[in-house]
Design a protein that fits this description.
This protein has 372 residues and is an alpha+beta fold. The protein is 55% helix and 13% strand.
Length: 372
């Protein structure tokens, strides 16, 4: 399904179809509200309003599907995706109720007709609100990281002195500060700062799923806001980033170490500290520290519990356990839940075939939510 809604003449379909939604849905929602209060509008433009709302509903569905296809390329902005799903439901409900209401207008004194009109107006208002929310979260996910980036602050006199001192002693040490990071500002030599840690992204830039430009614009600057805006607490991006760490801001490194494979040592320390086996997974069994296994892959769902559309309990029951059967029963091969899940991966389970507890039935019943 994703391939059908993926690209249009080589460009992502999602931002293109979004223009139809943000024009048709608000315009014809307001037109319906006007028709409710003014009989002349209702009689003259009723059929046109129904056509417009129908186009808006279909466009919202295509926007949802194309958004899922785009997320396979650049990642999933969870809040935007969840609001978008709700907007599709509202758009189709509004279209259906409006058709019924206009049909019932043949007898405008009918109580059912009036009640249907009130429901239609309520849905139209909801459509307006959700269109704004979906548009805002989508724009935030797309642009916030780009416009919030600032060049790393260049220290004034103290920085100049520090730089001079560093230059005089660069044969023996490198200080991880803003000045040093600013020197590594291109795709061939790319350092960045995220949450006061310095990372060398040079080896990763060409393999970034979101493309080289999204990494290149972070080179030589503090990328904390951009990274948080795009990935937040998602497990996989944070795990990938941890492999590229050089050290903390202010740390002094031996120049030989910094000029060689700077991330090797920190990475080996990070990766050797925790073994991804069933014993380790079973320790992370609460809402404050929730790991699970799905198809022999380990995921950290701690940051996602409160965002899960099906509620916290459906995630909580698989914390510290093997959630494979429950996930498959609930979502099967649905693309979006699988794509969302992939954002929280820690790595492969080292001892498949273990005796981890395996829940098989959702506490919330079938059909709750669309993510895991």
């Amino acid at each position: 399904m994703e391939k059908i809604f993926d690209l249009f003449f080589g460009l992502p379909l999602h931002p293109l179809i979004d223009h139809v939604v943000v024009i048709f849905l608000p315009v014809f929602s307001m037109a319906l509200i006007a028709a409710f209060f003014f009989n002349s509008i209702r009689k003259k433009y009723g059929f046109l309003i129904q056509i417009g709302l129908g186009i808006a509903a279909v466009s919202a569905f295509i926007a949802k599907q194309s958004g899922e296809a785009l997320s396979m390329r650049i990642g999933t902005p969870i809040q935007h995706a969840n609001l978008g799903e709700n907007l599709v439901i509202i758009a189709f409900a509004l279209f259906a109720v409006s058709v019924v209401w206009f049909y019932l207008q043949r007898d405008s004194k009918n109580l059912i007709s009036k009640l249907t009109g009130i429901v239609a107006v309520s849905l139209a208002i909801a459509a307006l609100v959700f269109t704004v929310l979906v548009g805002h979260t989508g724009a935030k996910a797309t642009w916030e990281e780009k416009i919030s980036q600032k060049p790393v602050t260049q220290e004034n006199k103290s920085s100049s002195q520090e730089k001079t001192s560093s230059n005089n002693s660069n044969s023996t040490s490198v200080t991880l500060n803003a000045t040093e990071v600013a020197k590594h500002n291109n795709s061939a030599d790319c350092w960045t700062i995220v949450n006061n840690e310095v990372y060398d992204l040079t080896s990763y830039i060409n393999s970034h799923p979101g493309g080289v430009p999204n990494i290149e614009r972070l080179c030589g600057i503090d990328g904390s806001q951009a990274f948080q805006a795009q990935h937040g607490g998602q497990g996989k991006p944070n795990t990938q980033l941890s492999k590229l760490i050089i050290g903390s801001v202010g740390q002094v490194l031996d120049s030989k170490t910094s000029n060689s494979n700077t991330q090797t040592k920190p990475n080996s320390d990070n990766q050797s500290s925790v073994a991804l086996n069933s014993t380790e997974v079973s320790k992370h069994n609460s809402v404050n520290d929730c790991w699970t296994v799905v198809n022999n892959e380990v995921y950290d769902l701690t940051s996602y519990l409160n965002s899960h559309p099906g509620g916290v309990r459906n995630i909580e029951q698989i914390c510290g356990k093997d959630g494979s059967i429950l996930f498959q029963n609930q979502h099967g091969s649905q693309s979006r839940p699988n794509n969302v899940l992939s954002g929280f991966i820690l790595g492969s389970l080292s001892d498949p075939g273990n005796n981890l507890s395996t829940p098989t039935k959702s506490v919330g019943g079938e059909g709750e939510g669309d993510d895991d």
